[in-house]
Structure formats: C-alpha cells, structure tokens
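Following the same procedure, sequence and fold were stored together, as reproduced here:

>
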Amino acid sequence: MQRARALLGDGLLTSDEPLHLRQRRLLQPAFQHDRLLAYADAIVEEARALAERWRPGETADVAEEMARLAVRGITRTLFASRLRESEFDELVAAVDGVVETFDAAMVALSPLVLRLPLPRTRRFLEARRRLDRLIRALVRHRGEGAGAATGPLSLLLEGGLDENLIRDEVVTLLLAGYETVASTLTWTFYALATHPPVEQRLHQELASVLQGRLPGGDDLKRLAYARQVLSESLRLYPPSWINSRRALEDFELGDTQVRRGDNVVVVIYFVHRDPRHFPDPERFDPERFAPGTDWQRHRCAFVPFGAGLRRCIGRDFALLEASLVLATLAQRWRLVCPSPEPVLPLGQFTLRPKGGMPMRAERH
C-alpha cells in the first residue's frame, strides 16, 4: 500500500491519519444515497448506447467493453466532465497503460528502482505522466450536469486542498471506481453465461420489473435478484482481491504474535471461499445473498469493499452503477462464451480475467 503511492500519491486509499479522516469527511457528501440517485440517468444512457452498438453474433472482449463503459460513467457522474471523444480515448488508453504497469510499481519496484532507467520503470512513469495530463483535462471540462455542484470534483476544488492532493484524489477515485465496476460486471456476465438457470431467473425478474423499459434509480429496490447475482459475483471474484493493513499495536492472531508496525496481508479471495461461512464455496449460488440470510455468516466474511473505518467510500456508487448497467444490457443481450474452457482469474491490481473475456452477443 505504501508503494502504491508511486501512482496514487496521498489519495484516500493510501493516506494516513489524520489526513485520511479529513479527506473522507470532505468527500462523504458526494456519496450519500440521494445524490447517487442523481447519477442514474447518465449511467443508463451510457449503457444503452453500448447496447445499441453491439450486433448479433459479434464477439468482443467484455472486459474491455466494461472498462470503457465504467470510465465513461465515472467521468460523466462523479467528475461531471464531458470529454471530447479523442480525449476520452486518450484517457482510457492512459488508464489501461498505468494499470498494466502498476503491479510492477506496487510489488516489485522500490522507490530506489523507480529512479533507474529500466524499461518497466520508463513505461510506468510515462503512463503516469500521460494520466496526469488527462486528469487536468477532466478538471478543466467540469460540466454542469446532474450532481456537478455536489460531486467529488467540486468538493475537492472547493475544499482547500492543494493541487497535488486534488490530483491524488482524482486518480484514486478514477482508478478504484472504474476497476471495481468493470471487473464486477465482467465476471458477472461470465457467471451468467456459465449458469443458465441463474441467467433465466435474472431475465424473468428484469421482464417483470421493467417490462421492456430502461431501468432507473427507483427500480433498484425491486431488482433484488440482480443484486444477489452481483453479490455472488463479488464473492467469487472480488475486484480488490487482496489488501493489507499495518498493525497499530501488538496482538495475537490465532497462534501468531503480530507486533506493532507489522504488515498484515488479507487475501479477500480466500476469505470469500471459507467453507465455514459459504458451504460448497466454489459453487456460484446467488441464493447465499437472499433477503434475510445476513445473520448466517460473520459480518466480515463478505468484504469486497473492505470493512471498518477505511471501507471503500464508493461502495454504494459501484453497486448502483453495476446494477443499472447489468439491468440495461441483460434486458437486450445474452453474452455467450465461445470456448468451453474456463476463464482463469489473474491477480493484478484487481482480479482480471487471464487473456481477457471474449464473449459473443446474442439478442435476448
């Protein structure tokens, strides 16, 4: 997490107290429920545009499609920015470039190595410079759309933060927000394609609730099974699959003595596969998250967005966007895996599909 500062600086994900508490209090109003609902129409509009671009029988990398869609959603909603198409293409390329090189910077590269002219170091630093330039364009093109005045970008600009901290927060929100949503949707469509009964039940709910119209924020409470599907996808394929914390005091963890200052690594991918809380843990079963089942498991058995004081501030936004995109696309399309071979997860910055996620579009 400390090495992640090479990319994220002192954003909300990596900052220490008391700066972290100040940042969280500054941004929290932008993620209140009523304000999030103001983003619904823009999210659905972007998803509808993607649904209209797809053609029956065409195969596309769903991981790439969901990534572009998620970046569009964040720039229009959280940042209220209307980028030109050329600027948007540059932003997507910059985000992809920085994520592809980020693992090396986070795990393998020490601050000293970042100063050496190694090929991977040069690629990372160039991707970071390109992203920083486009972040300035995001700020410059801040619009007047829904939630603009109370969105994160406005709060940052009016909150007394210096220019470097604003940059760090925008990069953190952009990368964490887009990766979480894109990964969740990618694995969800894969799970639906490999579990036809689940897909059929989801389609039945969408037909019953929406009756052919586009979804809106008011529909989310009635799309209960869609939320269960997303939760089970987050359980098996948590985007933030690994996390770490620094111990603030000595304590015992099982038979292990943890000392103050030790790094404690939490592998959420394994936590979510603990059979004590999820029987037959490798099976995809949205009924695990049916209403009224929360009491059956420990409150930290399911933590795709972390837990405690540093739980992801954008959790509700990510679930809102994922639910609306899933409902919009699944109404009109089924995505089919062209190969019977299972897609394997690859633990990078997030849990990405190894080799991408090529899928064929069929009209529903």
The two ends are 43 Å apart (CA to CA).
